[in-house]
């Protein structure tokens, strides 16, 4: 196909989209967002973005009003999040009789709320007068800022941000060491939106710009990442961890007559082969279904999984001592020595709304999805734990692994590795556990720290500080693996400067776009 035909085909498609109105326009946007979500793990069909995002730009160009400009991002975002977050419904089906009615609110309502941020990006692009060639750079920069805002506003929920599609390419993922999730998102937005320029006035310069953004940017990122992977060989600490994945069905985990059996099974999996040479055994979130801080008998039994001279690192709930007021409940990580002594504790700080607590409980007379009627209390936040026989570690419990830049606590010493314990059994054999794993892996790349991950039922894994996989237990598997803990690398630019680098790049993209307002048609 020659150059003229490329421009003509793009112009015809843009005109057909521009002619849509009413429900056809809205339905098309939802469909485009849903189609684009196929680029997310585990499918990772990246080419779909080369249709989904240019079409969004063309529909934005044709938006007659500010309200319509907002609607372009909002309707597209609804489709993106509905497909990207459908797996939330699995958690509500664990007790369908009690929580099944919440599925439309959880999937469609949450998607509509999150889509507001993308609608704000398209509206802001219209309000600041971005047009012509530069409108793509402006929209990409504002899209990145909107996703960053989504990561902390209303407690934050950065799940399935645009940059997460690059989990499929380890070389490109290395850009996360500089720009984090937001830098990867800016790269994705620029590269995938750029083909929209083909519907503008034909010119060799415009074609070259599209090629530079759509092919050149990812290629440069891939080349730089491949070079980094080649120049930084894997290195090991010599300490072996045993990661256990017990695969306990979520519906039976807290049944009174099954809890002892779950604990015994976890111990048996841990001791299935000799514990000699093992520095620590790692169990997932809430793997011990007892309040281990007060339950000496079950804690002593769990300690049978601790290797001689080593530790058991396990998730379990923690409550206030008997008689202490007010009664409080925490989702915790315990470090337990042989014999049952608690060496260290970490309490989850970033709790899941409606899963671990009910926001506005005075207004919403509903129960949280997890067992019990008491809301969990948040811990103090990210911290570095110093454990005997192990390098200092940054613990992340479940949901906490999705937040960029929130691995290390302020004023805390830099850890040598990240430990992520989780219970993805809530989400069945869905896309959710794959997306959660991808988020945790990116935290390792961003911070330059190896990551050990123990999940109740997939996906447990070990990654080195460049995101290279060392070991894995797949979704739905039961068992354990032994892996030598990798060494960290020097602190990364993202680890040192945090979000300031990608936000500066986003602002630079906006400024460049506003400076280049060449008209679309001649």
TrEMBL record:
<dbReference type="InterPro" id="IPR003010">
    <property type="entry name" value="C-N_Hydrolase"/>
</dbReference>
<keyword id="KW-0808">Transferase</keyword>
<dbReference type="InterPro" id="IPR045378">
    <property type="entry name" value="LNT_N"/>
</dbReference>
<protein>
    <recommendedName>
        <fullName>Apolipoprotein N-acyltransferase</fullName>
        <ecNumber>2.3.1.269</ecNumber>
    </recommendedName>
</protein>
<keyword id="KW-1003">Cell membrane</keyword>
<feature type="transmembrane region" description="Helical">
    <location>
        <begin position="136"/>
        <end position="153"/>
    </location>
</feature>
<dbReference type="GO" id="GO:0016410">
    <property type="term" value="F:N-acyltransferase activity"/>
</dbReference>
<feature type="transmembrane region" description="Helical">
    <location>
        <begin position="210"/>
        <end position="231"/>
    </location>
</feature>
<keyword id="KW-0472">Membrane</keyword>
<dbReference type="InterPro" id="IPR004563">
    <property type="entry name" value="Apolipo_AcylTrfase"/>
</dbReference>
<dbReference type="Pfam" id="PF20154">
    <property type="entry name" value="LNT_N"/>
</dbReference>
<comment type="similarity">
    <text>Belongs to the CN hydrolase family. Apolipoprotein N-acyltransferase subfamily.</text>
</comment>
<dbReference type="InterPro" id="IPR036526">
    <property type="entry name" value="C-N_Hydrolase_sf"/>
</dbReference>
<feature type="transmembrane region" description="Helical">
    <location>
        <begin position="72"/>
        <end position="93"/>
    </location>
</feature>
<feature type="domain" description="CN hydrolase">
    <location>
        <begin position="244"/>
        <end position="493"/>
    </location>
</feature>
<comment type="function">
    <text>Catalyzes the phospholipid dependent N-acylation of the N-terminal cysteine of apolipoprotein, the last step in lipoprotein maturation.</text>
</comment>
<feature type="transmembrane region" description="Helical">
    <location>
        <begin position="173"/>
        <end position="198"/>
    </location>
</feature>
<keyword id="KW-1133">Transmembrane helix</keyword>
<feature type="transmembrane region" description="Helical">
    <location>
        <begin position="38"/>
        <end position="60"/>
    </location>
</feature>
<keyword id="KW-0812">Transmembrane</keyword>
<keyword id="KW-0449">Lipoprotein</keyword>
<dbReference type="GO" id="GO:0042158">
    <property type="term" value="P:lipoprotein biosynthetic process"/>
</dbReference>
<comment type="pathway">
    <text>Protein modification; lipoprotein biosynthesis (N-acyl transfer).</text>
</comment>
<feature type="transmembrane region" description="Helical">
    <location>
        <begin position="99"/>
        <end position="124"/>
    </location>
</feature>
<dbReference type="GO" id="GO:0005886">
    <property type="term" value="C:plasma membrane"/>
</dbReference>
<keyword id="KW-0012">Acyltransferase</keyword>
<dbReference type="Pfam" id="PF00795">
    <property type="entry name" value="CN_hydrolase"/>
</dbReference>
